[in-house]
Design goal:
alpha+beta; Hsp33 domain; CBS domain Like; 2 domains; six-stranded antiparallel beta sheet; six-stranded mixed beta sheet; 11 helices; binds zinc ion
């Protein structure tokens, strides 16, 4: 295993307001795919969106989750990636009909991008924008520029086995602690240099080597690399509260049809079963629904 697998390396260009990240998703990506069978084009799109979510999430000063959703009226209904501030992620896709030779643009026809920031403390924020651009990288660049007014460039690559990406971002001056020396050309220069990046280099070179190769004359400060990991935050308690929202009647009629209500998590495929006794407890205000193993694993984070 290469040292840089499943990790994200943050860096900045000294004396400029420009920073970046490089991410490699390997096992993290495989675990996401393990729970679902996707056509190759969706596998690749999901990998690119996962890489993008880690790159963008690492730029935020927020404890919580970022959810990127591509919703469309084309064959692809939904592509969703959730990435936490400690870079654990889960992802899934929904589509209808056969996906054979459609291009990615056909699949996302008349679609929209929904970006949700869900901080552990405070209100969630949601931005919805029409899809503009031909690739996931372009769509997110347009979103960042138009709705956040932050110059961001993304390079994303996924071959269906591994996903990787690089981000460059120009911080607005008001976000900087010290005013950088004047280097008006830096943003254009770094982007031009980075545009020589090939998919093969992005996927296979160690990030330190990649940066030296692309920006040979620039002064770059590297930060400590951060691990990425698959993690699904589903739990019996969350499924229970979803069933509770459906109401007594609906739950009872589901139970009349079959002995148990079966709910499968879209992200990890874990199965949750509710029988008549569980259902009665759902609507009994005094009962406390506890599932030890999951409570423990959640509180461990
Ligand atoms: Zn799950």
């Amino acid at each position: 295993m290469k040292k840089f697998q499943d990790s994200l390396l943050p860096f900045l260009f000294e004396n400029t307001p420009i920073r970046g990240n490089i991410v490699h998703l390997n096992h993290t990506y495989h675990e996401v795919l393990q729970h679902q069978t996707l056509p190759l084009i969706l596998k690749q799109a999901l990998g690119e969106l996962m890489a993008a979510s880690a790159l963008l999430s690492a730029t935020l000063k927020m404890d919580g989750a970022m959810v990127l959703q591509l919703q469309s009226k084309g064959a692809l209904k939904l592509l969703v990636v959730e990435c936490s501030s400690n870079l654990t992620m889960r992802a899934t896709a929904k589509w209808s009909g056969e996906i054979t030779d459609q291009s990615f643009l056909d699949l996302v026809a008349n679609g929209q991008f929904v970006i949700t920031l869900d901080p552990e403390e405070g209100e969630a924020y949601q931005g919805i924008v029409p899809i503009e651009g031909e690739t996931i990288a372009e769509m997110l660049q347009n979103y960042m520029l138009r709705s956040q007014q932050i110059d961001t460039t993304l390079w994303l690559h996924c071959d269906g086995e591994n996903a990787s990406g690089m981000l460059l971002q120009k911080l607005p001056e008001q976000m900087l602690q010290t005013k950088p020396e004047h280097d008006a050309d830096a943003w254009n220069r770094f982007n031009q240099l980075a545009n020589t990046l090939t998919n093969d280099e992005l996927q296979n070179l160690a990030p330190e080597v990649l940066l030296t190769r692309l920006f040979v004359e620039e002064d770059i400060r590297l930060f400590e690399s951060r691990p990425t990991q698959f993690h699904c935050s589903c739990s019996k308690i969350k499924v229970a509260s979803m069933l509770k929202m459906l109401g007594t009647e609906e739950v009872e009629s589901m139970l009349a049809e079959r002995e148990k209500i079966e709910v499968n998590c879209d992200f990890c495929n874990k199965q949750y079963l509710f029988d008549a006794v569980d259902a009665a407890e759902l609507f009994n205000e005094k009962a406390v629904f506890v599932e030890n193993s999951i409570l423990k694993s959640n509180t461990a984070h």
